[in-house]
Amino acid sequence: MDMLMLLLAFILLFCSFIIILFIIFINNKNKKMDQVDLSLDQMEEAMIPQPFINKRKNFRVEVDNLYCIIKFNHFGNPKYEKLKDKTIEGYIEDISLSGMKFSSDYELPVRSDINILISFQLDHLVFSVKGKIVRRQDHLNNENVTYGIEFAELLPNQEKQLSSWLNRKIVSK
Predict the structure, then answer these.
(1) 76-118 pLDDT, tens per residue?
(2) Stretch among 7-16, 93-102, 125-134, 139-148 having the lowest mean pLDDT
(3) How far apart are CA 26 and CA 19, in angstroms?
């Protein structure tokens, strides 16, 4: 009888040990699955287009297609010099202290060094600012082309007025 009790205790202890090992094994598998799930989530996030992260040195304020006039001052490519002093119309989409984005139905090459004078009005303030076209974005469903402009020469009083206007717009949102 003692031998039977001892054997039963041993079997019970052995089964408990197997159950504990099984629980540890399952926990490790679950941790690995969680890591795989996390890796899959990270891969899915990397594949989903993320909203543009603003890496600009100045904040931008969206404007509601504000009318502007662009005059071409200089082209890095002599092939385009015939366009010098030509003006086109456009619409500003956003603006900052360092530049703006505008759209126009006029197609310009971006690879050329194109210096412009852009004139626009913000409330009662009139601006004429020298700039350079630094980016072009074509739109499939729209005949307009969007351009990124970097301001080249913002006079101190223009900078002060523009900064004040931008700050008022941010505060009023």
Answers:
(1) 888 877 888 899 999 999 999 999 999 998 887 766 688 899 9
(2) 139-148
(3) 10
| Token pair for 135 | 């980016």
Structure tokens at 75: 């082209």
Please, are residues 111 and 129 in contact by the beta-carbon 8 Å criterion?
Answer: no
Q: How many CB atoms lie within 10 A of CB 24?
A: 10
Identify the helix (H) or strand (E) that includes residue 48.
none
pLDDT in tens, 30-48: 777 666 565 555 555 555 5
- Give the gyration radius of the chain's Cα atoms: 32
Domain 61-172 has CATH 3.40.50.300: no
Please give the Cα distance from 125 to 165 (Å, whole number): 9
Q: Contact, 164 vs 148, CB < 8 A?
A: no
Taking the mean position of all CA atoms in its chain, how far away is CA 161? 26
What is the C-alpha separation between 40 and 55, in angstroms, rounded? 27
Q: Is 64 helix (H, G, I), strand (E, B) or coil?
A: strand
